[in-house]
Amino acid sequence: MSRDEDYRAVISPVPAGAPRALWSVMIPTYNCAELLQKTLESVLAQDPGPDVMQIEVVDDCSTDDDPAAVVSRVGGGRVNFFRRSRNGGHTANFNTCLQRSRGHLVHILHGDDWVADGFYARMGELFGSFPEIGAGFCRHTITNDGEVAQRQSPLERETPGVLAGWLEEIVTGLPLQPPSMVVRRRVYEDLGGFDSRMLSCGEDWEMWVRIALHHPVGYRPEPLAFYRDNSASLTKRSVRSGQNIRDVRRATRIVAGYLPRDLARTASRRAGVSWANWALHWAYELMQRGDTRGAAVQLREALLCSRSPRVLRQVLAIARLGLSRRLRVMSVSRQSG
Question: Is 110 exposed, middle or buried (0-12, 13-18, 19+ CB in 10 A)?
Fold first, then answer.
């Protein structure tokens, strides 16, 4: 019988006596070289030097562009580049990032996201002020493809510090994005890498829950990280098939398996509502674009996540919207014929 550990990469300790920086900024890429310059520049603008910060781009065998050329042009020899021998998917690439990291603090910064000036100084202060934390994160800003801010993540507390009741919150939904999170490398060594069972998304949420189960988590209220809501991202490509919601439903089942029973029951129900709301959001977006097939897939996934009265009402409303659009199209077609 498979165990959860069988799906997590082993993150071996850095060999004793090997030189170590404080930071490992690990940048996974796949076919996003046109956005990588922004990512690298945001890190290099606050680079404390190679003795303090490892900066490395890890490419999952990009086929549409040349991230190595961007690293050479922008990095000027300061940024390392590593290309995996074969494409293994985003989770395998994240785990390669962890395995190649050498710093005490690991920041996985996707190749289409970026950080604000002061991110590393202020997050470093958080870990220095609260040495008991295993991980810490800040607020993040979500932008569109044009880098225009759309919204910010919720404020967890007014001042930097350790989050009280964080496990109970994180098990019910995902209020943060990867560019805002920093984790001590020894935590990954103890808990293993990202879970390979999620194909498009959800592996980050499962990891943050796993960390919160074993370690205190810190927080800074400043919005120091930027998450690009990229229309070409893996998550977006998985929406029409419903894989995005299937992944978080799977992650919910995995998480429930190692939570205390009472918390698992409550968390699974509340997480189901969160994922249903996410599916409803995508169903509405797809319906507005005239993609009734994709919208129907997301509506079905919403019902598999939760059948609360509110979810049922929303499903019915979006289905009616789709019917109304279809009738209008048929009417226009008849008139033009």
Answer: buried
